[in-house]
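Q: I'm writing a short explainer about Mitochondrial glycine transporter for a general audience and would like to include a description of its predicted shape. Could you first generate the structure from this sequence?
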Amino acid sequence: MSDGGRGDATQVARLPPAHLHLLSGALSGLASCVVLQPLDLVKTRLQQGSPSTQQVRIVSAAVHVVKDDGILGLWRGTLPTIARNVPGVACYMFMLTRSRLWLSTLPQFAPRHPAASPSSGLTKQTALPKLTPTGDLLAGSISRTLVGFVLMPVTVLKTRMESSLYPRQGLIASFRTIWAPQQQTGQIAGVRALWSGFVPTALRDAPYAGLFVVFYERSKTIVGKIRIGDRDVPRGVRDGIAGSLGATLATLMTAPFDTLKTKRQLRPETYKTIWQSSVLIWQQRGFLGFFDGVSLRVARKAGSSAIAWSLYEGLIRRWALPPKT
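A: Of course. Here's the predicted structure. Afterward I'll give you a sentence or two in plain language.
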């Protein structure tokens, strides 16, 4: 049967070794970081502003960055983004696969379809063990939260380097400013500063990651049923489309927590708790204030997920599947 046919859809594959998951995740994370950093930077600028400047349009914000820092200014914060996302995506992909493999051995999370049973391992349709929607939600949430906690200091560093509220500095100087701010009354410091915004980050990332895996797997199933002539949609295209759809839906559902996270990391002396921050945003901007920069985050997440998951699954699948005879 040809590669695009349905007859070998459940061809058994080997579970790739840990280093391949880490390498594939790192490469996919690096690609999305470099390509999509400008979207993340402009999103941060829109979320940082005071009430009087929140109406700035996306294009105007981007033009302002280029005017002040040149075209390369759109890639400000790329180094901490890479420092966070490359190991972060690598560890997340590895932990996600391992947690899904473990959950697939439990009856309550194992899929009921015999072709996707835990004993069948990986298949040509996926580089990940199959689970029920509840299992997907749990695996994604746990994996993302643990990785997010470990890499939280780098996330804070990235957010501040993208912002215009702080002087432009290198990684070491920016870290020192966060750890021990110089004569800035009200600024938190030390460990507390490096993990500022973790709670809203976890409230964003845990449901986002869980929902993404659920939407991603279901989107792959739907797109996989589409036929182009007498052939299936190419698997790389299918994975990219599914990644974009899953990221879009999950991002829209968790956008308020992203805004809270950014506010608390940039102005922790003003946005002190989740509740107080929520009240302040509501007073300043109303309901829409919780969705500042959401279109940019959707664009970035959809793009990064399309790149990351099509590359990741492609690399894993290429190794895992036995050669055709």
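A: For your explainer, you could say: The chain has three domains: 19-75+305-324, 77-109+130-196, 199-292.
Q: Perfect, that's easy to follow.
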